[in-house]
Amino acid sequence: MRKGLVVQKYGGSSVANVQRIQNVAKRVVGYRRRGLDLVVVVSALGDTTDELIALANQINSSPSEREMDMLLSTGEQISVALLAMAIHKLGFEAISFTGTQVGILTDSSHTRARIIKINTQKVLEALRSGKIVIVAGFQGVTSEWDITTLGRGGSDLTAVALAKELGADSCEIYTDVDGIYTTDPRIEPKAKKIKEITYDEMLEMASLGAQVMQARSIEVAKKFNVPIHVRSSFNNNPGTMIIKEAERMEDVLVSGITLNKNEVKFTVCDVPDRSGVAARIFRELSSFGVNVDMIVQNVSHIRQTDISFTVSRNEALRAAKFTKKVARNVGSGEVIEDNDIARVSIVGVGMKSHAGVAAAMFEALAKNKINIEMISTSDISISCIIKKKFGEIAVRALHGKFNLAK
Amino acid sequence: MRKGLVVQKYGGSSVANVQRIQNVAKRVVGYRRRGLDLVVVVSALGDTTDELIALANQINSSPSEREMDMLLSTGEQISVALLAMAIHKLGFEAISFTGTQVGILTDSSHTRARIIKINTQKVLEALRSGKIVIVAGFQGVTSEWDITTLGRGGSDLTAVALAKELGADSCEIYTDVDGIYTTDPRIEPKAKKIKEITYDEMLEMASLGAQVMQARSIEVAKKFNVPIHVRSSFNNNPGTMIIKEAERMEDVLVSGITLNKNEVKFTVCDVPDRSGVAARIFRELSSFGVNVDMIVQNVSHIRQTDISFTVSRNEALRAAKFTKKVARNVGSGEVIEDNDIARVSIVGVGMKSHAGVAAAMFEALAKNKINIEMISTSDISISCIIKKKFGEIAVRALHGKFNLAK
Which distant-in-sequence residues (6+ apart) come within 8 Å of B279 by Cβ? Predict the structure, then answer.
């Protein structure tokens, strides 16, 4: 009698060593004992992927992306074989598959491939024969049989896509934290685990620096309405459900607070106030592959204006180079780079329909004498750029202001 | 203009680290510069395979063979990706393939699969488009898309089989020695590199302990008459050609001398001299997977006889257990285990047609006061079991006796 199908995904830290692999096997077998069908998606062991990247870079500082995928996909292949062996050891049937074997068909954008479709035949056959199915996360295959990888957080995507294709009853993402918190508990010890959060809020939190899940897999989950349960592989506590609409006892204005200290601010001074100049700056940066986060254009005065934007720290070098170049080309003044910033953000679907949330945020910061350098808003979030040293104070102040500890 | 196709195989020690991978890339590119088409077969980096086996054994002492193949095949996949990157770095086009991608179709005998056929289409397409083709050795795929491995020495087999299927002009096996020597140069400094050796002689030497190439790939090379060039990846010296019939200026009686100190001798004493008893002993051992090397039955006396045989050291424990069991069952006397033995052998197609070779061998040993405990002969080899401590002396005595240093 079929009791339901669960797709589980275990991240690298959950399978970082032999003992942890054995623990994952025990957990999987526990579900099996309850009569559930299981598809288990696994990432590479611990730091394997980073080690392989380092090895490749020793050989070629700009390695072919096809060969990079060939190399990196071995990490997950090792994990699935070892997990299958660990499950066998416990006396249960299990079979591992690579992305190629499972038939995760992708486009040929190596290192960041997009899933086109999944042939579930092999998985379904194995499930029907009573086996626990173990699938290598993060990887797929093109129609030409080239191995691809799905980019950062790709294993989450594998799990969500399989859950959708197989019509799974639930999709569990196991990680090294208990779930999604109202903010980082290392910054605010009063942070609380969120029971339910909407796809949109989770997307916003992911893009603002919460590192539990990548935005891409949440987007897919949202698109196909796949409920996700984010929880710890080290205990049995319930984690956080990511769902379409959270059923809350009362309206919550703000669900979580994020802090991102990995951004750098650039200000292009004295930009000629002509139409098309801003477009030219950002088109140029984009053509060189620099991703810009926040953009703020200050009030113009005397036909000139200042444009500020932020980029990730790891893109700062390239951003500086191309920004200076384009600034010269359009006849702007100097380019100021500011590393001493933090972005603090509040996220919540509730703020859509409630005025005064922004004001409350600014008041809380002002009360703590924190100066706001840039402000940016979306439908369900407000972000402020402040001095880096105030980051943690700001998080705690906002956590208190919006009563997240209650 | 096509100048010819070369299949090259590089063993684990040739790609043990970044610098060696770069050296292999330089060598490959050197051939390419001369206008040759290249298919390069690579083993796993250094000790990768042993490390993966150790990891698996920590998790499951008798891992599933299918999952073992899934695990071990990652070793070669890492190698091919890194070698492709190293060749790209030198400005040449290269593409790597797994056994699955190349279409090395095998049966489903995991960990020791046999090649059924090779679909050369992908390799030929890549060659036609001017690329250096890099193929993961040691691995194949079943018709059910399960990954298989070909067993010890499997990468040699991949190279030989590809050379045959592609009609390559030559098949070069790169290793950490200069070629095949008349005997181990660490034992006899006067040992000489053999210029040409026949498949049969090489097969005999491989089975008698010469470790340069496994018997299986030589068998395939012999079957399809693929000439093999065994040479070093650390220099440009010509190595040894393994061919059908060596063209020698004069007849050579003995081509090489091997020494194997990894055998253990068992003697079953007082075996009832009835027909079928010997058969029963060896059928029993065989059914428990113990491979017996030499067998000698001594002259019978008073309806009883002694039977001696040797096995590899790593099978000695199991051999002892089952031999004692079967000895009891057939009413034999005690079983004596002797670890203090060495097998010294002379190999040469010339001895087929020449009497007196055995006598010359025994004389040389006698002259050095080396007692012979067992003798076994084949068409092109003679082996003697002697006390272990005399192994090196015997090799040097025989090397001199048959003038191999000249």
Answer: none
**Which residues does chain B have within 8 Å of residue A98's beta carbon, measured at their own beta carbons?**
70, 147
| Binary contact (A95, B66; C-beta < 8 A) | yes
Q: Would you place residue A253 in the very low, low, confident or very high pLDDT band (cuts 50, 70, 90)?
A: confident
Does A146 sit within 8 Å of B56, measured CB to CB? no
> CA torsion, points B361, B365, B368, B372, in degrees to nearest 10?
-170
- ipTM confidence: 0.82
Q: Closest chain B residue to A53 measured between Cα atoms?
A: B82
Q: Give me the percent of chain B exceeding a pLDDT of 70.
A: 95
Least Cα distance to B57 among B71, B43, B73, B76 occurs for B71
Q: How far is CA A185 from CA A6, A196, A389, B362, B372, in A?
A: 29, 18, 18, 82, 78
What pLDDT sits at residue B246?
A: 64
pTM of the full structure: 0.83
Supply B165's token pair.
Answer: 């299927």
Give the HSE-up count for residue A342: Cα atoms under 13 Å, Cβ half-sphere.
Answer: 18
What architecture is the A5-176 domain classified under in CATH?
3-Layer(aba) Sandwich (3.40)
Question: What is the pLDDT at residue B1?
Answer: 42
Residue with tokens 């049989």: A145
User: Is the pLDDT confidence value at B45 over 60?
Assistant: yes
Domain extents in chain A: 5-176
Distance CA B374, CA B370 (A): 12
Contact by Cβ (8 Å): A93, A130: yes
Task: Give the pLDDT mean for A149-159.
Answer: 93
Contacts of A96 in chain B (CB under 8 A): 67, 70
Looking at residue A131, its pLDDT comes to: 97
Cβ contacts of B81 on chain A, cutoff 8 Å: 56, 67-68, 70-71
Return the residue of A nearest to B147 by Cα.
Answer: A101
- What pLDDT is stored for residue A36 in this prediction? 96
Query: φ, ψ for residue A234 (rounded to 5)?
Result: -100, -5
The C-alpha atoms of residue B257 and residue B348 are separated, in whole angstroms, by: 9
Chain A contacts of B86, Cβ < 8 Å? 59-60
Tokens of A381: 């979030």
Report residue A262: phi and psi, to 5°. -105, 30
Of A64, A80, A101, the CB nearest to B84: A64
Q: Which of A68, A74, A85 sits opposite B67 (nearest CB)?
A: A85
